[in-house]
Amino acid sequence: MLGFPPLDVALAAVLLLASAGGLLSGEVTEKPLALTLPVAVVCSLCLLGRTRAPLLAAAVVAAANVVQALWGSQSPGTLMALVIILVVAYSLGAEAEESVAALGLSLLLTALFTTEWLDHGSDYAFIAIELGGAWLLGRAARSWRSRATYAEQHQRDLALLAVAEERSRIARELHDVVAHGLSVIAVQSDAAEAALARDPALAGPPLRASRALARIARSGMRQLLHVLRADDPGDRTPARGVDDLPQLVEAARAAGLPLDTEIRVDPSLPAGLALAVYRIAQEGLTNVRKHAGVVPTCLEVVGDPRRVTVRVVNDRPAVAPVTDLSTGHGLLGARERARAAGGTLRAGPTAQGGFELLAVLPVDGTTP
């Protein structure tokens, strides 16, 4: 019906039939019928706008009651008339802003006090209590609805935040899995191309290293996709961990990096910490290849019951490195991983002209 809410239409129809039926059947003796029937119709139809225009509905109902009290035998006093007034008072409290709701309640109180005075009655306190009670009940319903809406919006915001964090995690994983392999493969491809120009037999080692790194990157991508496709959040196991550090070291050495290592860490570290250790070590070695080239490098991953230390330090580069594939996101991702694990990460040049990456990660998640 003209787009009105179904509940309002049904409420208006029921009260209209009851009010008009009582007057037309003679059960209600309010006279004259030419006045009381239009008043009943107008008051009932006002309920159609109780949610969209509650102040207008209250003003019309108030005016209709005063009009009947002035020119009729008495003001509307039936049960249906009382129900209409209480519904309008409730709707004011539930649907209108506080100032508008207060103004509407004032109009209703003024109108009913006026009709009570014209009818020579004295039930002013009862009128104030019943109208005020319905109005306060509406305000309570509005407050509850607002809290429910806020809680729902808060849940949506938390879900969006979780999605954003997950996307950031995925982006870091993609960087770690793909960028590391591609950057080293690019360096090995350059070396193979240079070897082909001098002696094709020299191109074998860098090509084999590139093939091994491509397979490692492909395996990492498959594990990452498995993580992302898992329906059960508890099945999202890390793609890498401390058990994969020897493979990372072998790949770096196969790529030509002179690498000394010291790895003494408990393989049963928490999954998140183990992943952070691996990725930070991987990022440190990747940065060496990107920014320093093939220079002597040391990787230390040492753990005790309280903390795990990851240190990657390289000598001064002999020539300017190739940095075309550098995005600047690697160290940022490593620092975020360290912070997420409750640890710290420091990266910067050494006094000898090399570069050092040092991360300290607590085993129990507290600040080391």
List the helices and strands and how they pair.
Elements: H1 6-25, H2 33-45, H3 54-71, H4 79-95, H5 98-118, H6 124-198, H7 204-229, H8 245-254, E1 259-264, H9 271-291, E2 297-303, E3 307-314, H10 330-340, E4 344-349, E5 355-362
Parallel strand pairs: 1-2
Antiparallel strand pairs: 2-3, 3-5, 4-5
Helix pairs in contact: 1-2, 2-3, 3-4, 3-5, 4-5, 4-6, 5-6, 6-7, 6-9, 9-10
Features:
alpha+beta, 368 residues, Heat Shock Protein 90, five-stranded mixed beta sheet
Structure explained in plain terms:
The chain has 368 residues and is an alpha+beta fold. It has two domains: 6-122, no CATH class; 155-362, Histidine kinase-like ATPase, C-terminal domain (Heat Shock Protein 90, 2-Layer Sandwich). It has ten helices and five strands; from the N terminus they run ααααααααβαββαββ. The protein has helices at 6-25, 33-45, 54-71, 79-95, 98-118, 124-198, 204-229, 245-254, 271-291, 330-340, and strands at 259-264, 297-303, 307-314, 344-349, 355-362. The protein has a five-stranded mixed sheet with strand order 1-2-3-5-4, covered by helices on one side. It is rod-shaped.
Order of helices and strands: HHHHHHHHEHEEHEE
- Sheet with the most strands: spatial strand order: 1-2-3-5-4
Question: Please, what is the oligomeric state?
Answer: single chain
**Rg (C-alpha, Å):** 39 Å
Shape: rod-shaped
Distance separating the two termini: 68 Å
Total domains? 2
CATH superfamily of the largest domain: Histidine kinase-like ATPase, C-terminal domain
**Unreliable runs:** 230-238, 322-327
Query: What does the average pLDDT come to?
Result: 82
Structural class: alpha+beta
Q: Main beta sheet, described?
A: 5 strands, mixed
Total DSSP E strands:
5
